[in-house]
Amino acid sequence: MGESVYILGDEDRRKFARLIAAAWADEEIKARYERRPRPMLAEFGIAYPEGVVTPPLPDRPAGEFDVEELESAAGGSLGSASSVSSIGGSALTAWTVGSSGS
Fold it and tell me: Which InterPro entries match (predicted)?
């Protein structure tokens, strides 16, 4: 049987965008998320269901970014694959739209 998929709502996508930005800016936050993602999701105000695999943090893209751009891409529109992939790579795209990514 396949894994369950959980799609974040707009507000939770913005919160996850803040978590991603924090992890990109601070290696300790990234390490904490990689060790125990559920407490980090809760710390950023995201109630993530038990029994569903937590989303991976995407690699930081080259260049500069700001939280507002990341939030906009994560939830300002419908979080389309094109807007998300431009800031997060295939891992976030795959998780957001529920495809396999590559």
Answer: CN_Hdrase_a/SCN_Hdrase_g_sf (IPR036648)
Residues 6+ apart with CB under 8 A from 37: 54, 55
Structure tokens at 8: 């974040």
Residue 87 structure tokens: 């800031």
State mean pLDDT over 8-28: 92
Q: If we measure between CA atoms, which residue out of 57, 93, 99 comes closest to residue 74? A: 93
- Mind listing the pLDDT tens digit for each residue in 67-87? 677 666 665 533 333 233 333
Burial class (CB in 10 A: 0-12, 13-18, 19+), 49: exposed
- pTM, whole model, 2 decimals? 0.64
The answer to whether residue 64 scores a pLDDT higher than 50 is yes
Q: 8 exposed, middle or buried (CB, 10 Å; 0-12, 13-18, 19+)?
A: buried
